[in-house]
Amino acid sequence: MPLKDIPLDAQPREKLLARGADALSDAELLAILLRTGIKGKGVLQMAQEMLALRSRTKDSDGFDGIAGLLHASASDLKQIKGLGPAKCTELLAVLELARRAMAQQLRQRTVFATPDAVKHYLQLRLAAKSHEVFAVLFLDVQNRLLAMEELFRGTLTQTSVYPREVVLRALHHQSAAVVLAHNHPSGTVQPSRADEALTQTLKAALALIDVRVLDHVIVAPGEALSMAERGLL
Description:
alpha+beta; 2 domains
């Protein structure tokens, strides 16, 4: 149904102003960002179809819900019929604002006061990548975020992640502690034996400069696992 045929007080923008953003469905919020549909398809229908279609495959033209959409890359968005450069950039800007808001929150408070926030932040940063990435959150003495750096990419093993480089970056940031993180593009967050061995290698190397490894988080679309919570540290 075109927006013009929906009662004014039920249209997404008016509904948001009258009742607040939490009163809107995912499709209605997305429709506000999209603003207009395409020929033969209203903006609400377009938003609903985008959220309903499956993603994570090369042949997909949808995102399987709002979480999939938030993990989309620019190339993913370009595959959606009706999403021109302006709409793509607006959606990507919203995602980047979400990342920055979470990063600011982690800088202003002790990271492990809100462990779920760390997982969500890492999911926004890493989960959508099609290749494996190893990153480190560098923390101060109060466990607040100083910086996050993506240090290595590709298949992660003890031979492809260099402890010396991690140690040098920790010294550069004058870190007191770190959180290790990497993604599993395959979709499973279960740690492999290689993940466990790599964690112990880095833990030993960083201990030499008195930097603690607080956790190693593995992320995939829609999931995150804390190795510390599993007792694997």
